[in-house]
Amino acid sequence: MEMKKRISLELRNRTPAEVAELVVDNCRSSDGEIEGLTDEFKELEFLSMVNVGLTSLAMLPSLPKLRKLELSDNNISGSLEILSEKCPNLTYLNLSGNKIKDLSTVEALQNLKNLKSLDLFNCEITTLEEYRESIFELLPQVTYLDGFDAEDNEAPDSEADDDDDDDVEEGAGPVGEYDDDDDDDEEGSEGGEVGLSYLMKDEIQDEEDDDDYVEEEEEEEEAEEEEAEVRGEKRKRDAEDEGEDDDEDDD
Q1: What are phi and psi of 99, to 5 degrees?
Q2: Pick from 8, 129, 144, 197: CA 20 to 30 A from residue 24's CA?
């Protein structure tokens, strides 16, 4: 799909001024230039043009609010000075997988004063001796190169996207999470009380059942004793009757 058509589809009935994020990865630029992107995208903060066949950034419009730019897997080899002219507030730039070979090409990024994270992974420039030291010296404003700082500490996700920092500072997400935890705790405590009461009731019921069982055993034993007494008295009477019969026969 052509880049111009893809951008038109991504608008989704919005005006360019209403778009803050635009992703047109894997579409095609007919002549290696940016097409369909205009100065009307003045609110754009995140732009991703991965693997679109770009060879030049000459047609990049003015995007004063752009903070994150993804340009990986293209054929860009220079013209990086236009970024500081058109996107002066960039904080994150991904140029991995492009045709960047020399430090002089990267030197054009010195005027991006807010640039914190730069990715040149899989570019030929990374094979230069002391590549990392040279880039950090050339671009002192950059904190993370290819995902790591000068001491090889990995960049947290929030450093790569300042928008995430803003969301955390506003606290909208954490507040909701805390509320959910509170609800769970309340439900858990209520459930615990119910469960404890239920167990106590079970124990009481078991004790009552044991008492009933003991009473039944005692009643059965008393019944057996009474029955034995009845049988004993019957045998005694039978014996007495037999004795009286024998006396009568003797007479």
Answers
A1: -100, 35
A2: 144
